[in-house]
Request: fold
Amino acid sequence: MTADPSGWTIVEEAFEPSRQNYRETVFTIGNGYLSTRGAFEEGYPGERRATFVHGVFDDVPVVVTELANAPDWLAFAVYLDGERFSLEQGVVESYRRAVDLRSGLLRRELVWVSPGGKRAAIVFERFASLADEHLLALRCTVTPDFDGEVELRAALHAAVDNEGFAHWHLAGQGQRGELAFLAARTRATKVELALAMRLECAQPAIAGAYWDAAGAPTFTRTFAARKGQPIEAVKLVGVASSRDGQQPVELALAAAARPQGWDAAYAPHAAAWQAEWQRSDVIIEGDVEAQQAMRFSLFQLLIAAPRHDDRVNIGAKTLSGFGYRGHSFWDTEIFMFPLFVYTAPHIARNLMNYRCQRLAGARAKARANGFEGAQFPWESADTGEEVTPTWLTHFADRTKLVRIWTGDIEIHISADIAFAAYRFWQATGDDAWFIEKGSELILDTAKFWASRAEWNAAKGRYDYNDVIGPDENHDRINNNFYTNRMAQWNLQTALDVLDWLRQHAPQRADELSASLDLSGARLARWQHVIEYICLPASQDGVIEQFEGYFQCKAVDLPSLEPRHISVQELFGIEGAAATQVLKQPDVLMVQYLLREHFSDEQVRANYDYYTPRTDHTHGSSLGPSIQAIMACDVGKPDDAYEHFIRAARADLFDVRNNAGDGIHAASAAGIWQAAVFGFGGLRFSQGGWQVNPRLPRHWKRLAFKFFYRGEQHVIDLSN
Amino acid sequence: MTADPSGWTIVEEAFEPSRQNYRETVFTIGNGYLSTRGAFEEGYPGERRATFVHGVFDDVPVVVTELANAPDWLAFAVYLDGERFSLEQGVVESYRRAVDLRSGLLRRELVWVSPGGKRAAIVFERFASLADEHLLALRCTVTPDFDGEVELRAALHAAVDNEGFAHWHLAGQGQRGELAFLAARTRATKVELALAMRLECAQPAIAGAYWDAAGAPTFTRTFAARKGQPIEAVKLVGVASSRDGQQPVELALAAAARPQGWDAAYAPHAAAWQAEWQRSDVIIEGDVEAQQAMRFSLFQLLIAAPRHDDRVNIGAKTLSGFGYRGHSFWDTEIFMFPLFVYTAPHIARNLMNYRCQRLAGARAKARANGFEGAQFPWESADTGEEVTPTWLTHFADRTKLVRIWTGDIEIHISADIAFAAYRFWQATGDDAWFIEKGSELILDTAKFWASRAEWNAAKGRYDYNDVIGPDENHDRINNNFYTNRMAQWNLQTALDVLDWLRQHAPQRADELSASLDLSGARLARWQHVIEYICLPASQDGVIEQFEGYFQCKAVDLPSLEPRHISVQELFGIEGAAATQVLKQPDVLMVQYLLREHFSDEQVRANYDYYTPRTDHTHGSSLGPSIQAIMACDVGKPDDAYEHFIRAARADLFDVRNNAGDGIHAASAAGIWQAAVFGFGGLRFSQGGWQVNPRLPRHWKRLAFKFFYRGEQHVIDLSN
Reply:
């Protein structure tokens, strides 16, 4: 990828088939309703061609549910005197692909010579309208270098799948005036998705047809080609599902019919992006790479963020790939959420409402596990049930299965979601929302925590046994500091919230006390858990990550270099668990989230202890951005930069070799946190906010904006 | 289904959507190269539309491999003045579907009135040529009852899947003269399959087009409709895969181009079927239902039987459904094989060669399990590796998995295959084949049996522990009589075979002795196992099915009636295992296969003991036909008939409610065995053959033919 001095474009100067899938991820475009990976309009072998629409899930064997790759709207074929354009054959004389982050426009321009010797300049452009989320646009311009014929074919295709899993049954297709449409229905969840298309051509065609072929309605147009005279066609596509209304075909047809031409579609879209950047942009001067990565990350998060739908969340891989099947994790609340809370509270509210509406699922999960209150699923999709696969076949031996425990015992997510709800309230000051929705979530998760705590009579304390903390190198452990401390926070916050409600919304306090059975005895129990929760002992100010961690085997991580695999791959799952090597440092994570509860000395002691024990290069992709923030906290902005830039490169440089599965959304949002809370040193407290800048030496300027209690603030820092 | 007095047609007088999938199975047609289920040309919601081509397997997650549902050749749409014909809408004034078993022609005729009031008589006919296995033909005749337009669309579709698993990538398509083609490639196994089509119309069209829509090449023809004047179109389809040659597209194009019209394609096909029936037919007079079921069963086996390919076997559900994913079991060698050995030895040879060619896989399996020789897989597909799924998710609780043990320990299949090889040799007298191929299989399976036997020093005997016999109600048992006795047979036969080879083919005997390491010590060990194998003790002549069976809980099966579920569903898997209820009777099965080793008294004692302990109605579909034979053996032909007719109804009447998954091939072939070996009483011995007829009282005549040592014999029995 070429660094662009403006920081506004991501450029690919040559097509390399070996990098095809990761570049499809990088060139994902979207509008918060759907995203489309950067597969080529004309197709290419080995592509992971995909469009994911928020909330359109379907069942899958063993791995439960996934976002169903939607029927393909991109399909567009070009024929030069009867020869089909494809990068598989002929000669590519020049090639450039770029996405303009400022406007969300993906453009590919190339000069191609067919095997038969016909040369043409071909340009493809596409965008998903940010102004009209049901509208997609694609423009193809062919400038032939010969006299003859150019044929264009624009199609909609029902025959798509999720890497082998077929989700759609054809539900209808046909022609309506100058529009064609295609409707398909998911097999298990019965969501109907409709696409409609219109083809506008600048030049008159000498022939044209509509092909109503089953599952592949297609418009064809043939043009007389004259050397040097461009031929331009605009494919306008409408998309809607039964989640949007009862007649998705009509909605899709209406969307495709709305704009008159490319410019009419593009202008409001570009204006919407301008407003988006006005609110969200972070300016970094003196570091082109950081600037570009920052904007790329913001772009990827903004195109995945639901603007008009509060029944969906953002998956760990956004809407940009098959990885994690569109499921949402704590990645949303702890890593992505701050960006939205402080730059786009309307989006943050949608995300939070998704969780509030799924309290029923969380309650059912708690009940099924023998607990009270709300236990949120580790992986969440449409219904709010737990959708973590319980078993996966071993990658090397199909007769062995690996038990996936995260859905059972990575319980910290309930506190993480409560933390986000509280943060949203504090940042926005939206008491009405908090009274109606957020407070219940915090109270009901507290109820879960109190029931999940086990009284250890021998030691006179409460334990959380058999858990997994954020550091997944160590599973099925007892008294993980992150889990216990966040549980304690959740319980204490619930008591505080109930007091506040009694003062400011006594009727709602009564309602919730009744519906959640918040008896005096229950509240006393909460208090008891808060006081007697096991928080592992300190040695020289160092907090033990979990019971027994200090006894694990020390490993000299630098001595393992050069290393291209994780310690789990190196030592095996159980071997890695026996070491002190962390996938990410739980204690520092708590200190980051609950910073005001720790002294600078406590932070430094734990930073110094855990930093060399953390696998920064091949551990969790969630780690580096938080590590960067904590490095700033202890006054090491240059160390911080190393972690920051590692996070920044995760997708643009495919440093973990899995960007083809989709954007590392937590890492992408983490670099915003690292810039704003780390280098910018922004901190919030009851009294308001403050900045304590600690910029990397080579940065000349860092500027960002944030909302706090309804007002936008602009921070502009120079070195 | 309507009984047809001729016994040659299977008729459906009305379309019932609730029976759709089972009727698709019943109306499967094929030609030994492929089969196509009886889905409607125009499609219908909920269909299990499928064409399976022998040997075209692809990988599937968890369940290993499956026959990939081939790209669809059937697609054919009819439009009456623009309204698409579909049984989903409009009015069906009359309907009849029938398959003519004599000629393998499936015909559907109906009168339909469109929602807009256009009436037409529509007839669809199709066959898979038995004379040219790469040729398929479909004829559509529309007789409009109005003046206007009729449009026909014939297509090939790449977008097919196996109940949610997508197997194909589009590999090419286009037009070649009057032909169109489509090529697709399986994703993992990279088999290329090509279809080509031609459309011949008896009347001149007023318009027509070829639509090259991606994955759905389509011919359209529009005709001026005149009331009462039929419009006829013939779709000729060629099919070939990369298993057939390097250029499947060319092969498919050539096949579709060969015949000039329907009659030219049909005549050699019908002649081939005439020859097939000449060889195979079984005549039953005095019982229309039995006659029809017999011919239906023979038809279903004949269309699944490979005539020109010895790299494939027949799956437990033939090529007629998704059940068991096209995998082959002992069903082939023990249930289907006799039909082919005695009526179509050329087919039997292909089936046997499939096993001989997969000795490498069987050796690898033995080696992987720590044994010697050849251990055949319980489920076999393309490569000869074990393809039994090891784990399946529990149908009721996705967090639980059920361990499938058959692939590990249902070891009797190795003796079953050896038994079939020996039977083939004995029946055909084909010494050359046996010397070259069959003998090695028998010797190498014996090697396995000797290594698998465990010396029980305490009891001075050899045990086969931790096995599953044919009666799968009892798994992980020790010393199953079927397993032990067939192992003993395999070892003894191997010694006999080696003696025979030494006499008749001494060079081959030396070769095999060397390559299989048949040392004196090894042969002595075989002899020792034969002599000391544990064959559970008898009580009053009753043989204990496995060690401890007599201690299992007795169940009064009639007291459980009326019952619509198996005893496993009733008592649970472990509950059923604690009872004496058999899924099928292993001791009777041995007595059937090795009849000459048991006295009539022994057979009667075991028949009387095990018959009331067997779940005849909801146990194995393999059971009834063998039970019928043993009932004949003990002189109870009317009891026998009850079992026979239960087997005969398995698919035609969907008595087990799973015919939609495909034909019960073992049951279908079992009714041939029941007629010939049971009612006909045909028996072979070293000296030749004899018949001892025991016809059901109401049968007037039973006639059949069989080959023995190269000569065809005709048996014609009257009551």
